[in-house]
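Justification of computing resources. Each target in the renewal requires a structure prediction run like the one illustrated here; the chain below, 299 residues long, is used simply to show the kind of job we budget for.
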Amino acid sequence: MLLYKRIPLTFLLRNIRREALLVFLFANLVVFAKMLFHLRYLTIPIAIPTLLGTCISLLLAFRTNQAYERWWEARIVWGAIVNDSRSFIRQVQMFLPDGPNRQLMLQAFVQRQCAWCFALGDTLRGHQVAERLRQFLPPATVDELLTNDNIPNALLADHGIAISQLYKNGQISDFQMTHLSATLNNLTDSMGRCERIKNTPFPPTYTFNMQVFIYLFSAILPFCFESDLYYLDVPLVTLISCGFMLIEKSAIQLQDPFENKPTDTPVTTIARTIEINLKTMADFKAVPEKVPAYDYYAM
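Resulting C-alpha cells:
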C-alpha cells in the first residue's frame, strides 16, 4: 500500500518507459517526414484526436473506478479480519472457564489465529507458508497442515475442532458455542472474498481494448501539429500519451491487490497488527514489534 510519503519518479515511470520511448520515436519519425519531404497534407484535423481523447478519458475513468473498487474491497475484507480476530479471541477469553489450563488453551487459540492471518496473506501472494507456520505452531501440527490444499481453511477447521471439544467437555455452553461458530463463519466469509478477488482476473479484453485506443490516439496525435513546431510537437505528443498510459497502468496495479507489489493491500502489516493485539490481550510475555514500512509503501 502506498503511503503518504514521497513516491520516486522511477516507480511511476518504469511501467511505461517502453511505451513512452516508442511514442517519442514515432512522433520524431512523423515530424521529420513532414519536414524533410514537405508532406503537409498528412496533417489531420485536431477534432479527431480530441474526440478520441474524450472517449478514452471516459473509459479510463470507468476503468480506474472499477480497479479501485477491487482494491478497496480487499482492504475492507482485511479490516473485517482485524475486527473478527479480536472478537474471536475476546470471546474465547470470556467463555473459557477458570482452571489450570485456561491460559494455555487461550494462547493456543491466539497462536492458531495469528498463524491463520499470516498464512492467508502469504497464500494470496503465492508465498510458501511453512516457515511462517513454524513461528506459531508445533512442528507436528505444521507437518499435518502442509498436507492440505487450503492451509488457511485447515487452520479454521482446527479452530472448530478445538471449540467442539470444549463443548463436548462441558466447558462452554450452547449459547457460547453459537457465538464462537458465528465468528468463525465471518472469518471463513472474509477468506472466501479474498480468494474470489485473487482468482477472478479483471477481464483481459477490457485491458487490451483500452491499450489499443491509447496507442491509436498516440499514433494519430503527431499528425495534428505543424512540422514547424517540432520542438513543441514531440514533447507534447509524448507527455499527453504518457498521461493516458500512466492512468491505465495505475488501474492495472490496483486491480490485483494480492500480487506482492507496492500497491498491494498490506496484508503482512495487518497480520502483524493482529498478532500484536491478540498477544497483548492474552498476556504473552513476548510481543513483536510492528512491521517497518519501506521508503514509500507498506506490505
